[in-house]
Amino acid sequence: MKKRIPKINSVIAVSIGLVSCEAVGELEKKDSMDKLVKTDTEWKEVLTDEQFYVTRQAGTERAFSGEYWNHKEKGLYACVCCGSKLFRSDAKFDSGCGWPSYFEPVSERAITERRDISHGMIRTEVTCTRCDAHLGHVFRDGPPPTGLRYCINSTSIRFCDLADKKNAE
Question: 82, 128, 151, 160: which is the annotated catalytic residue?
């Protein structure tokens, strides 16, 4: 007779909260990325209502309303939920769509793509690999060299000006 192991309903909760931009540099030194899982209640404690709606419920901010759609500074864009680095400013371009657009993520491991058939459309959703935060969608109408347009909600990301930190080291 097989021994039955009871199913435990538990959540892996890493108590890092919202990661500061300084901590992003520490995250990029890791060889592996630990999965970050929290309950909705835990996410609501560290995110604004809009951040929770967009990142945890796959919402979308209005076009031309986000903080970064027309942002031009040099640096890094990290996940607002876990601080994982996602996009570099040198991969950002003006697509005219009203959301921050990038032609490539910092690495293939940074994001996860999923088929999205909501709202009567077939699209490719982009999420943060580490914490599964909804970021936006990727389309195949971007510029060279990739031909991709990662259309990302400003609410899902945080800008980190890492140039000053690197110059100080």
Answer: 151
Please provide residue 22's backbone torsions phi and psi, each rounded to the nearest 5 degrees: -65, -35
Q: Is 151 labeled as catalytic in the residue annotation?
A: yes
The mean pLDDT value of the chain amounts to 83
* 151, containing H or E segment: strand 149-152
In tens, the pLDDT along 36-58 reads 999 999 999 999 999 999 999 99
Q: Does domain 21-168 have CATH number 2.170.150.20?
A: yes
What is the DSSP annotation of 90-147? GGEE--SSSS-EES--S-TTTEEEEEE-GGG--EEEEEETTT--EEEEEES---TTT-
Two structure tokens written together for 11: 């959540």
Give bridge partners of residue 116 from the DSSP assignment. 123
pTM tops 0.85, yes or no: no
- From CA 21, how far away is CA 73, in angstroms rounded? 15
Parse the chain into domains and list their residue ranges.
21-168
Ramachandran sector of residue 73 (left: φ over 0; alpha: ψ -120 to 50; beta: rest): beta
Supply the pLDDT for residue 25.
53
